[in-house]
Amino acid sequence: MGTPHAQRETHTGAATAIEVAGLHKSFGESEVLRGIDLTVRSGEVVCVIGPSGSGKSTLLRCVNLLEEPTSGTVRVAGTEVTDPDVDIDRVRRRIGMVFQSFNLFPHLTALGNLTIAQRRVLGRGKAEAEDVARRNLRRVGLTDKEGSYPAQLSGGQQQRVAIARALSMGPDLMLFDEPTSALDPELVGDVLAVMRRLADEGMTMLVVTHEMSFAREVADRVVFMDGGTVVEEGPAEQVVAAPRHPRTRAFLSRVLDPAAADVLEAPSPAQGTPPEERAAN
Ligand SMILES: Nc1ncnc2c1ncn2[C@@H]1O[C@H](COP(=O)(O)OP(=O)(O)OP(=O)(O)O)[C@@H](O)[C@H]1O
Ligand SMILES: [Mg+2]
Predict the structure, then answer these.
(1) Is 256 in the pocket of ligand 1 (CB under 6 A)?
(2) Closest ligand 1 atom to the C-alpha of 51?
(3) Tens of pLDDT along 87-111?
(4) How far is CA 245 from the centre of its chain?
């Protein structure tokens, strides 16, 4: 069993890694984020949970400015990324992002996928980039797969390559958007184990996930979003095991026991959004 992250580290006085304040995001008429305040301290693991369409991916995408916030501020390691004068590429280099779909280059081996951005973006030479790549493949348990192409790897292995690729850039913090939800159930555990180890090593992580046991065991804090707002946040154990807000309770009962929950609650309007209208992940 995992040691709760909070017991391994004290965050009192730790630097702020991410600070989101009054964040709003609209797409045309539709207001998807309605004033989000969220702080992640250095070394902290924060899991974001919530129904489909509640704005979780949009929040993550605003943190590294893949989406431009409509209003509000986002600071990453003290730098305001929403400042129009900021060198966003420099800030982005400090943020590793792992998506549901692994986004590996199909024509490159695992090693090639790990070295290309190091060389192009960080200007590392071949030997150094390969050295860093091999070290990170080892970290995710894929030492023997450096010569494999994505099509020769399982989904779980591809996702671990994607994590190793992000780590090879030497990020200060990592954003994960449902990293295991495209995987067959038997492959989920290996990816979660890698993420758990990263947490143990003190990596700052903001993780959108439906894996409640991971959230409960690994996260310091859990944030429940619904309808573009943070409805409830608190220590993982409290939010997942003893949620205070009725919407959190309804969501968790749906996630933890989907069959029973159908009877309990009609879907919220956000959940009724047709899939084709939702953001592509
Ligand atoms: N680029 C976009 N253009 C228009 N609408 C968008 C765009 N991106 C997201 N949305 C809308 O914003 C809302 C929130 O989407 P988001 O992807 O952030 O939700 P989510 O909580 O990540 O959902 P899921 O659990 O399904 O991934 C949805 O209603 C979606 O349709
Ligand atoms: Mg999403």
Answers:
(1) no
(2) 25
(3) 988 888 899 999 999 999 999 999 9
(4) 24
